[in-house]
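User: I'll paste a sequence; please echo it back and then give the predicted structure.

Assistant: Echoing your sequence first, then the prediction.
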Amino acid sequence: MTDRASGILYIVAAPSGGGKTSLVRELLATTDHIDVSVSHTTRQARPGEQDGEDYFFVSEASFIDMINQGAFVEHAQVFGQYYGTSVAQIKNRLASGIDVVLDIDWQGARQIKTLFPDAVSIFIIPPSLHVLKQRLQGRKQDDESVINARMHQAQDEMSHYSEFDYLIVNDDFSRAALELQAIVTANRLEMQRQSAKNGKLLSLLLTSQ
């Protein structure tokens, strides 16, 4: 029976520009007892990003040292930059009963699933390639050559959608946010978890009067 104190691990992946970061932020703002695992990366911080909140921004040398120390449960190199999720970030929060969301790519998701087979995986896709390109251009952070590379990479990433448990089409943001929250709610209501959480109530309800 599922340990009542144990949190649920959620993997949320999407192609660049798919909107997963915004959807995860909305989930955290509207749902109790859930937190995001902050990844380490070697890329530069984007405008508005803060160290320790969005990512832990580290040098390549520091990142490689962490790899050698076995500090990451998964890591990958994307567009020449390293990204990784520390083991401690996940295990400490799950053990305290907090659900954890991992905002990672499909490669990281595959690695996580081998170590945490009960993790719930969710893939987010855009409604069209045209909309995806508009979103990437709207960031005003990359030139056209980088955007084209991201579009090519996005199609490769989306080909792995079937490896995930759930699929959300991020056409209307409000609807997609509600769908993501519904997945979390449904998994919290799973029978083994609810039986463990409400064992005393169930015992009283089934006791003969």
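The mean pLDDT is 90. The CA atoms of residues 11 and 102 lie 5 Å apart.
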